[in-house]
Design brief:
Bound molecules: phosphoenolpyruvate, magnesium ion
Shape: globular
Structural class: alpha/beta
Cofactor: Mg(2+)
Helix content: 40-55%
Order of helices and strands: HEHEHEHHEHEHHEHHEHEHHH
Largest sheet: 8 strands, parallel, barrel
Keywords: Cytoplasm, Kinase, Magnesium, Metal-binding, Phosphotransferase system, Sugar transport, Transferase, Transport
Number of helices: 14
Distance between the termini: 9 Å
Subcellular location: Cytoplasm
Strand order of the largest sheet: 1-2-3-4-5-6-7-8
Strand content: 5-15%
Number of strands: 8
Enzyme class: transferase
Family: Belongs to the PEP-utilizing enzyme family.
Radius of gyration: 18 Å
Length: 311
Amino acid sequence: VEAAAVARWQGPGQTADGHRVDVLANVQDGLGARAAAATAAQGVGLFRTELCFLDRDTEPTVADQADIYGEVLAAFPSSKVVVRTLDAGSDKPLRFANHPDEANPALGIRGVRIALQDSGILDRQLDAIAAAATTAGASPWVMAPMISTPAEAEWFAAKVRERGLVPGVMIEVPAAALLAEKILAHVDFLSVGTNDLAQYTMAADRMSSELSSFTDPWQPAVLHLLARTAKAGADRNKPVGVCGEAAADPLLACVLVGLGVTSLSCAAAAVGAVGAKLGTVTLDDCQRAAAAVLETADPMAARAAATAILG
Ligand code: PEP
Ligand code: MG
């Protein structure tokens, strides 16, 4: 897609034949949300709340948290905003939440697992999100990171619903992708985090540049798990988004749409390129590319198969 077309893209996200797909931004604070609101992003598909607190020694109060979350909600009034609860641990350590001294932090007590051990931090964060929502007159969606079982999804959803918010979970562990159907019995939406899904599917550290060919989001094994997750959503008529790096690659974004994904969330800087590319292809092209990619055995072949159909 030409630079001029990218700059011109105004949204809403849709294929050339009018199949709608929300193109959303990933943000980490009010400043980032206001910058994202200046693009054609239709909302926020991933608000990484833990990144607001990387410099804190102690847990922010509910009032402090509510102010920070409120800034993001205020940047997108009457738009979809998906708030992720704290994803502490491993590559995003928080001093006030982390589980100390683990031999293997990526496979340890991270994300929602911290809350399962001690739910206080999560309860207070959900109170803060609910307070911010009331102040802003917004109804944000709220999702948990690092869910691996349907029971965890059920536990989390109850807490979110209790506060009048809309519950969902991230699919970033292969076990969760394989049981997406059962997880969807408990929550209203799913969002696939392809960065971690690739890490755990391929058994390759996402932070290691030496292993980047394994964690390539075009890995067919990762795309098969994604296809299964999207199908579970389609069967239950519930939204399934992608908020990992995969959604920032315009060609792969079209393949994801072909797999049945209903929204794409990426860095604000990539929103125009993704939206513009999507506008040049039909849903049928996307579906044919998705089917072709699932037949391949490696990322290079997957890219080639998609390029042959989508350009
Ligand atoms: C992901 O894992 O793909 C994701 C979106 O979450 P994060 O990158 O913050 O772990
Ligand atoms: Mg993740």
